[in-house]
Structure formats: C-alpha cells, structure tokens
Amino acid sequence: MTPGARLEKLVRDTATFLLPERLRKWIRKQQRIHKLQSVPVGSVDFGGLRRLSPISTVFGQDRELLTIERYYIEQFLARHSDDIKGRVLEMGDPAYIRKFGGDKVTQEDVLNYVEGNPNATIVADLTDAPHIPDNTFDCIIITQTLQMIFEVDKAIATLHRILKPGGVVLCTSHGMTRVARREGVDDWGEYWHFTSQSKKRLFRAVFPAENVDVSAVGNVFTCICNLHGLGASEVDQAELDTHDPNYEMLLLVRAVKEG
Q: Coil, helix or strand for 171?
C-alpha cells in the first residue's frame, strides 16, 4: 500500500470511528449530490480489460505462467512448511508435499475421489470415509478442494478425525474468483465460495477455536486480474502483496487438532 493510500485509509477509518452515523450518512449524501467522487464519472480507462470474455478461460494456465491463485497458495504453504512433516496427505497429487515437505516427510499419501489416478494411495469421499483410520496423518494439505464438496461440514469433520493429535491441516479455498467447472469431464461441481467468516465457523465447529487461524488474500485489482486469468508475474509485487479484507480472493486456513 502506498503512503498516500495508507494516509487516506487512516483518515477514513478515523472518521468512521469518531463521526456519528447520521453525520457520516449526510456526508455520503452530499458527495452523491455534488458529485464529489474521488474518481470522476466517465474518466475511467478500462483499456485491455474492457471485454466480455476473459483473457484466459483456464485460470491463466494457457499462458504458461504461475497463476495469481497459485502464487498465494505457494506463499501460504511456504510460510507453514515446518508443519509439512511426518506422514502427510495431499489431494490429487503429491506436488506440494514434495515441494514444501522435502526430507521432513516420512510417508506421502494422495487421496482421490474416484478410481484411476495413478498417484492415489487412497480413494475416498471425504464426507464418508470410514476406511481411513482415525489419527493417521501429521499433516493434510487440501488446496482448492472444499468448494467442490457439497457437504463441506462432513469433509472438515473427516479431516479432523484422520489427523493425529497435534496434527495440522493446511487448507485453501475459493473466495472471490471464477467458477471452476469441469463439464463433460467428470461429475464435480463447485458448490461454495467462502468468506473468512464462514471458514472460521466451519473449522471452529470441529477444531478448538484457538487452534484455527483463517486469513484472506487479494485486493480489488488482483481479483480483477485473476478473473481475467493473468499470471502473477504480470502484476507488480506490491500489488500482489496488498490485501484488502473487502476483496477475499482466497481463504487460507491453518487448523491444529487438539492434543
């Protein structure tokens, strides 16, 4: 965030705290009446973003660049790489186990929803998986998966059950982003886009509240760029690393099982 933006936010937050609500509403009304918007109407230049179809329809993967979502996911996993150790479970393939766990991992497992994945060591539906024993994993990495599960509360209960006491789940999910359909490929859908509030309630219903850390990444500009499928390298570092709680692109959860 630039110094000017920080000052503007400080003034706005201070005014919100000090001024009565009736006065704040009157000021906003005068702004509308007298057209005192910070950006005059009709002056916005949309440039190459003025289009009805995205620049990339597959999250930027066709541009051979690290996507903005994956940039945030990998930052999150790198921050918590110390948790990725012992026996670790990942969804779909073990790429992140190997990238961030390294020789701290004694056994890697991969869960897949249906048969046919050569990487899978476990085939299971997370909403009903009694064949996975209790207290099995030291860490579970579950990225961009929970939004594909309708009974998400049951899936989180399973994650808790199959973690060892003191085990950690590292979870990322969609917030403000495009729908990830796979029509004609399989029967997966995308049922939910989350907020930090919903993620806290879902995980704290199972894990101790003090053991659940939920954060969000993104801002209005990175959300727009991500919707168009731009790569992380096409956005300035300072823009990527500015997070606005009103624009939650991804929700990041670190939850620890009691004990």
A: strand
Provide the domain limits for residue 171. 45-256
Provide Rg for the chain, Cα atoms: 21
pLDDT tens per residue across span 139-189: 999 999 999 999 999 999 999 999 999 999 999 999 999 887 765 555 667
The H-or-E segment that residue 68 falls in is helix 68-79
Cα–Cα dist 225/208, whole Å: 36
Same domain, 31 and 67: no
138 in the same domain as 31 = no
Residues 6 or more apart in contact with residue 220 via CB below 8 angstroms? 244, 246, 247
Contact between 114 and 160 under an 8 Å Cβ cutoff? The reply is: no
CATH number for the domain including 51?
3.40.50.150
* Same domain, residue pair 7 and 126: no
